Amino acid sequence: MEDFNKLLIELMKITGAEQTTTTFLVNDTDIKYEEQIECINNLLNTGEVPNLFESDPTNQKDQIMQVVRERANAEGLSSDQHNN
């Protein structure tokens, strides 16, 4: 499961921080734990995986969020703007 979480973190970095269009393919033979299905379901439904970064000792979440913030600011977006 640890390898799967590392893969998801890398996916978040590539798609969110680097803004690379990506296809995430999973075969049924790749699923080894029920938790993997829960992670994929959460990602599809909410765009995030709860507690994904809690087990990451390198603290990549802060690095990814900083890059995303900088890109949003460069594009004139900020956290206090709301789309109606």
Describe this structure as you would to a colleague:
There is one protein chain. The chain is mainly alpha-helical and 84 residues long. It has one domain (2-74). 52% of the residues lie in helices and 0% in strands. The chain contains three helices and no strands. The termini are far apart.
What brief labels describe this structure?
84 residues, mainly alpha, 52% helix, 0% strand
SSE inventory with pairings:
Elements: H1 2-17, H2 34-46, H3 60-74
| Uncertain segments | none
Rg value: 14 Å
The tally of helices reads: 3
Fraction in helix: 40-55%
* Envelope shape: globular
Structural class: mainly alpha
User: Main sheet?
Assistant: none
Instruction: Give the N-terminus to C-terminus distance in angstroms.
Output: 39 Å
Give the averaged pLDDT, no decimals. Answer: 82
Give a brief outline of the structure.
With 84 residues, the protein is mainly alpha-helical.
